[in-house]
Amino acid sequence: MILVTGGAGFVGSFVVEALLDEGHEVRVLDRLHPGAHDGIPDGLDPRAEWRWGDVADAEVVAGAVDGVDAVCHQAAMVGLGVDFTDAPSYVYDNDLGTARLLAALHARRFDGRLVVASSMVVYGEGAYACDAHGPVRPVPRCRDDLDAGRFEPGCPHCDRALDPLAITESFPPDPRNVYAATKLHQEHLCSAYGREHDATVVALRYHNVYGPRMPRDTPYAGVASIFRSALAAGRAPQVFEDGRQLRDFVHVRDVAQANVLALTASGVGSGAYNVASGERHTILEMARVIASASAGPSVEPVVVPRYRLGDVRHVFGAPDAARRELGFVAAVAFADGMREFATDGLRHPVGRLAPYPGM
Q1: Is the N or the C terminus of the chain less surrounded, counting Cβ atoms within 10 Å?
Q2: Average pLDDT, rounded, for the chain
Q3: CB-based burial of residue 215 (10 Å sphere; 0-12 exposed, 13-18 middle, 19+ buried)?
């Protein structure tokens, strides 16, 4: 039996289906977070055992882990959020939820495989090289530069322009917003559990995931969903900065397959892996592909000189380790996946966050 936390969610539901298709027994624990759901979603796979409850509830999670052989921990609050008032909710869902899950596993003396959904946001800025100083790490971008439209980070030694590079798992983490900090803490908590219990712990650092079932009209969704929501409402997608930010967009079906491999492939060891396509595309390019393929009237994206201070300029992943050690290779091409996504259905969340207990 494999437990999937957050298995009714965007990524989790695809993981559940992929595991069931491989013949595994699956139990799901999901609290139906209103940032992603307005109730129990339609079309959940009836082959799974569905339990509705909060992973941060000690009694609920104790029952959910009973008898499981492997755990796929997808439950988390995602996205950059609205402002710092969201911090307690991120910590509750991501940090406390993970800690409660691990405490329940400890009580069962679980030593199976644990896969945790992490994110490329743990890196902060991506990797860069300076012609004069080689590989460098730029300092966080400041408001003065961003207000002046200077979006590209410069070399910290000479302020020259930098060349963005694909980031590898050996790159030191540098989380630059609350969500990123909690995702890294999830990794650290799970790694500590693995060392103490001799369990295999795999952290999958998702890059920009997109595809069907993304929640719409919410600041807690990814940028692809935000653009899709705008188009569905007849609005032009607003692209921040100058639209030249580089990202790696990976389809949710590929992400689900990476989870299946991490949970079931032989010879998998503990560690972190980029789950990425290996291709880089600009945010503006992505917006234009979705707009041109949308079912309604074509609306050209609009570049606006706005920014979010917690955003980074460029980050895209090197998927070599996942290919070598997990056997993962993304199969959905960018153009094909984005054209499909342009007409895919999105979920309708309630809206802003439900309060965590004690608020």
Answers
A1: C
A2: 90
A3: buried
